[in-house]
Amino acid sequence: MGTADGSLYFEDDGTGIPEEDRELVFESGFTTEAGNMGLGLTIVERIASAHGWELEITDSADGGARLVLHGVSFQPTMVN
Question: Residue 39 contacts by C-beta under 8 Å, 6 or more apart in sequence?
Fold first, then answer.
């Protein structure tokens, strides 16, 4: 997890998401694993959309997937 240029990103070091599947993964029911429901990234995309953010999938530095939330505004943390 990290921040860059007004965006928040999450990444892993897995096998990544092929470019041809990057739009499909947001569709309800899309999965590459038998027995999975294919709801995870659909839910993430809906939450991002509800907040006015844009969700993008790219490659991580380690070859896995990187999910980037664009349009996130950061508020200072108050500590008591």
Answer: 28, 29
